[in-house]
């Protein structure tokens, strides 16, 4: 089986479960509150997050909307980029909380929480330029 066929065989439910599991781990590492986690994921309540936790723990399918999956993908990309930029785990875990002139003196987390997907996209683009060495 070639690589494309193996990717096509992954179900949406499995993609959603893996995305939820990764997001929950990132939220834990970043020490997000339940409210922050919900806002970043674009879900309405902490009960949804608790349901994800139960489903992930039981290896059950997780239902995620396309817009939430987009948000989780952006967060995963941010997480990966931060790890690529900083060598120490304390640095890449803490970066999201530190003020940054690129975000008008706000932390990346504050920037992402102040609006919709645009804030997350801003942070992801900024990190990708830093990670790749390309500058505006």
What is the topology?
Blueprint: H1 3-8, H2 12-29, H3 34-41, H4 46-57, H5 66-85, H6 89-94, H7 108-113, H8 117-132
Task: Explain what the structure shows.
The chain has 136 residues and is mostly helical. It has one domain (3-132). Helices cover 68% and strands 0% of the residues. It has helices at 3-8, 12-29, 34-41, 46-57, 66-85, 89-94, 108-113, 117-132. Helix 2 (12-29) crosses helix 4 (46-57), helix 2 crosses helix 5 (66-85) and helix 5 runs parallel beside helix 8 (117-132). The mean pLDDT is 89.
Globally, the shape reads globular
User: What's the overall average pLDDT, rounded?
Assistant: 89
Tell me the distance between the termini. 41 Å
- Based on CA atoms alone, the radius of gyration comes out at 16 Å
Domain module count: 1
What assembly state would you assign to the polypeptide chains in this entry? single chain
Order of helices and strands: HHHHHHHH
Tally of alpha and pi helices: 8
């Amino acid at each position: 089986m070639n690589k494309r066929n193996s990717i096509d065989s992954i179900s949406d439910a499995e993609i959603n479960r893996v995305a939820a599991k990764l997001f929950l781990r990132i939220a834990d590492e970043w020490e997000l509150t339940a409210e922050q986690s919900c806002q970043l994921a674009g879900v309405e309540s902490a009960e949804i997050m608790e349901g994800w936790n139960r489903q992930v723990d039981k290896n059950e399918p997780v239902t995620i909307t396309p817009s939430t999956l987009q948000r989780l993908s952006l967060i995963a990309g941010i997480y990966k980029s931060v790890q690529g930029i900083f060598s120490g785990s304390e640095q890449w875990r803490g970066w999201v909380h530190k003020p940054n002139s690129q975000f008008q003196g706000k932390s990346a987390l504050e920037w992402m929480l102040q609006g919709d997907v645009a804030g997350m996209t801003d942070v992801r683009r900024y990190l990708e330029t830093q990670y790749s060495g390309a500058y505006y």
